[in-house]
Each structure stands twice: as structure tokens, then as C-alpha cells.
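Sample pair:
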Amino acid sequence: MNNRTYGQNCGLARALDILGDRWTLLVLRDLGMGPRRYKDLAAGLPGIGTNLLASRLKGLEEAGLIERTVLPPPAPVAAYALTSAGEELRPVLGQLAAWGFRHGAPFDAEDMTRLEWLIQGLFARIAPEAADRFGGVVQFSVGGESAWIGPAADGVRLRPGQAPTLPKISLNTDVPTLLAVVNNDIDLADAFESGAITVEGNDGELESFISAFSPARIG
């Protein structure tokens, strides 16, 4: 990706030769939620600069982690997407997100926040078999944003926006509550009981969701 290398026969060093530059992991984070146009990536990375974003995309493409694609109709425009090698990084990035929530700087209300980023901390701790056991899509609505989680052939899929199929359960809450759940500061079941998270779905589906998706249960 660049001419710099740690010069070590170590898997971590070799990975950092490709991934260690500033903004690189955040580009991959956003592409892990589906193909994105250049302008959409730029909007989610304020401060990166157009030349630097172009450089990072070129390097990731040369490294075989992303590829150019075309979005399906009704907006058939050029975009970037993860390759199979890039897809392998999604669980790693999710675990880093979860670690960052637990051990990084506290939440800052003045910093940019997106629902899909917060859900990554929860998404990282959802085992594919748990999603299969639940057997449906979970729709989140938080502060005017929406995102969904559901089972996929390659594990668990997280995407922004409205789910393409009817959700099995829909959750509504605010950013501080979701952040507290992601950080394990409050139990998911307690958040439902207190009304901090409201749910659309029957009691059996709610119990199934808590059993399969609760961070306290899945580590």
C-alpha cells in the first residue's frame, strides 16, 4: 500500500503495513456496512481531505481489500465495496469498535455520531449462530437514524437505513441508552423493562431477541 514497512515477518506487522495509516480503518469501517459512493465516504469522514481519501482508496484497492462497483438501480452510480479479503476484516473492526467503547475516551456530545457506528459495538458481539437462532431482521431507530441487523450467508449483516424485508422486531431508543447497552452499563432486558428502549413485536420475539442478542449473554 505504501513504501513503508515494519520489516518484520509477523502477521500483525504485515497487516499494519497495509492498515496502519490514519483513516484507513475508518474507510473500511464504512465500507463494511455496504458499498458506498465516494461522496458518501467523504461525508462520513469529516476532515480527511479529498486528496487523502483518494489516496487511501487507491491504496486499499491496490492491496486487494476494496474494489470498484456500481450500485443497483434506481441509482446506478459508481461506488466502492469490500472484496472477500476486505470482508474478512469486518469482525476485527467490530471487535475494535467494542473495545474502543469500553476503553477509549468517553462519549463526547460534540463529536460526530452515527447510529451505524454505535451498533458496531453491539454487532461485534453477536455470533452468527445467535442471529440464525433468532431467525429474522432487527430494525433500530435512534434519533432520526435507522439501521438493521440480520443473518446472512457469511455471518451477520449490518446495514444503515430500513431493512429490505419486514423486521421481526423493531427497537426505538436514544443515543445515550444505546451507548449504555453497548458498553454493558445497563442490561438490555432492564432497558426494555424501564421503557428506555421501546419495541414493536410480540413478547415471544422480544424474549428470543434478548436471549440471542444480549451482550451480557454473548460476551
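The longest strand covers residues 145-152.
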